[in-house]
Amino acid sequence: MKTKVMTPAERSAPNVIGNETHAGTPRRATVSNVIGLAQQLAEASGAARKLVDRTPNDLQILIGELRRWYYSQPPDERDRLLWRRFLEAEAIHARLEHAIERAREAIEVERPALAQAQAEREALATSPLPATVEEEASWTRPEAVRRYQALGIECQQRAAAIAELERLLPAPAQALGPLTEAVTRVLEAVGTIDREAFVRRVRESGELDQLRSRFERLWTMANTHETEIAEWGRRVGRPLRVPRVAFPWPPAAVWDILLGAPTEAPKLIWDDDPNGSSS
User: Fold this and answer.
1) Which tens digit of pLDDT belongs to each residue from 57-75?
2) Whose CA is closest to 222, among 198, 241, 206, 243?
3) With CB atoms counted within 10 Å of each terminal CB, which end of the chain scores lower, N or C?
4) Total structural domains in the chain?
């Protein structure tokens, strides 16, 4: 079988089919769906604005509103519904963060893909013209021309995608800070109501006068959700104003002696109020 001898034009023409360039070059990602990303950003930003608008800046006002709402709920459902308020706010924050992250990732994909497409297009533009009739007969330039035109469209689309995403990102990114503060205030209010309700239940139950062995369990119950509180304190860059539960009980060494003596109910202690405040 006769081996075909490649012409100079064939040797110089890049191997371009679809989104492939050279045999060793990976396929480029398709152009980002800017419409879909823009819709996600808009929906997440809208939900964030609504949450920020309906969350009072004054924590005590928010606590008062949440307290009234809490005691209007069915007793068996109060605690679950209370923490769902925070979980819903946290989900709005996560949704906005995810939309922003996806848009930024799309830009990071588009920039190198655009540079690669531009380089491939420039390589096609410099392909030499045929010098002989034989080269003209075996020339692959028509395919290269079609590829050159396709690359021009691809470059335009990628540049437009980058420009549009960069235009859309600032507003959601700026909304993330106020949203983080709003979610943090919701957590502070929810934690306060949760612990107030705990103190109330302990006072009404009489458990403190009856069961010393339940101290550790009660203390753990009173100080649950510390992980969420610590995480959102890290996010917002300040300690959260959620009161701690203080049990003014005697030390374990003298507990047996004082077991029969009356004990005080637990109190809510605010970190910015060393003397604490009774609920």
Assistant:
1) 999 999 999 999 999 999 9
2) 198
3) N
4) 1
Rounded CA-CA distance 113/83 in Å is: 45
Is residue 202 a contact partner of residue 208, using CB atoms and an 8 Å limit?
Answer: yes
Report yes or no on 142 lying in a domain.
Answer: yes
What DSSP element (H or E) covers 274? strand 273-277
Structural domain that includes position 62? 8-212
> What are the residues whose beta carbons fall under 8 Å from the beta carbon of 14, sequence distance 6 or more?
21, 22, 120, 123, 124, 127, 144, 147
| CA–CA gap between residue 56 and residue 186 (Å, rounded) | 9
pLDDT interval class at 134 (50, 70, 90): low
254 domain-assigned: no
Q: Which two tokens stand for residue 148?
A: 């050159």
Q: Under 8 Å CB-to-CB from 237, ≥6 apart: which residues?
A: none
Phi, psi of 270 (to 5 degrees): -90, 140
Answer whether 276's CB lies under 8 Å from 268's CB. yes
